[in-house]
Amino acid sequence: MGEVEIVLPAASSAAVSTDGKLLGLLVISGLITLLVASLIGLFAVRYRRGSKASRDRLPNWFARDLETVWTLATVGLFVAIFAWAASQDFALAVPPANSVEIHVVGKQWMWKAEHPSGQREINELHVPAEETVELVLNSQDVIHSFYVPAFRLKQDVVPGHTTRMRFHTEKIGTYRLFCAEYCGTQHSAMIGRVVVMAKEDYADWLTRQPEGDDLQEDGKKLFVAKGCAGCHYGSSKVRAPRLAGVYGSQVPLSDGRMITADDEYIRDSILQPKRDVVAGFEPIMPSFAGALSEGELVSLTAYIRSLAETETAR
Ligand code: HEC
Ligand SMILES: [Cu+2]
What we know:
alpha+beta; 7 helices; binds heme C; binds copper (II) ion
C-alpha cells in the first residue's frame, strides 16, 4: 500500500473472470470499431465526388439478406456475452460447501468484522487464502457498500437486511477496502484493508487476537461517553487533532520538539494534556487525571492504537 498502483492486482477468482469479461468486451468493441472505421474510409474513397463507382440501388434480396445476417449476428453475439457473464455471476451466488464465515457490520464510519471464533477488528479484515470466505454483511445505520477493487467485488450493505458476499483468493497480500456508497460526512474516511494470509498464518493470527479487541471496543465506547469524541471526531466544531493514524507516528509539538506517539505519550496526552501540546492546536484539552480509571486508560489507549491501522484515515 502507499505506492501508486498502476495495474490493479487481480486478487480473487472473481477478479480474474471480471478482467476476462472486460478484455473480451474490449476486443469485440475494438474489432467492430475497426470494421466500421475501415468501411467509412473505404466508402469515402470509393464514392468520392466524381468517382465512377456504381451508385445503382442494390437488389432488394441483397439488402434484406444483409439486414437479416447482421441483426442475427449481433443478437447472437449479445446473447453469448450475456450467457458467459451471467454464468460467472451465478457461480458466485452458489453457497459454497464449506467456507469461512465472517460477520461484517458497516456503520458511520467504519467496518467492523467479527471472526468465527469471536475475534474482532475494525477497518481491517484478515482472511485466509485458498479458502472460500463468506462475508455476512449488515449495516447499523445507513446504506454502505463493501468494495474491494482488487477483488472486483462490491456489495451494498443495507440496514435491516443481511447480504452475503463470497470470494476465493490465492494471492497473499494487503488490499484496499472502501465504502462505495456515500454515507455521510465522513464517508471518505470509511476505508480499511483486507489482509489475505496463508491458512496457517491466519490460524496463527486468530490465536494472537486476545482480549485486545474487546479493549478496543470498550475504549471506543469510553471515547464517546467521556466526551473525547465531542472534540476529536471530524465533525466536531472544536479544533482538535484527528486521532486516526496518530499512534506510532511522529507528532510535532508546539515547542518545536518531535515526539513518538507511543502508549506513554497517549497516556500523558490524556492525563497532562498541557505538557505536550500538538503543534498548531490550542491547549484547550482538559486533564482527565482522576476522571478515568487505569482500566479505562488502557481501553482508550487500545482504541487509539487500533485507529493507527487506518493509516489513510488521517
Ligand atoms: C475540549 C476538547 C477536547 C476533549 C474533550 C478531549 N480532547 Fe484530546 N485534544 C484536544 C486538543 C485541542 C488537542 C491538541 C492539543 C494538545 O495536544 O493538548 C488534543 C490532543 C489529544 C491527544 C494527542 C493527539 C496527537 O495528535 O498527538 C490525544 C491522544 C488526545 N487528545 C486524546 C483524548 C482523549 C482520550 C480524550 C477523552 C478522554 C480527549 N482527548 C478529550 C481537545 C480535546
Ligand atoms: Cu459507508
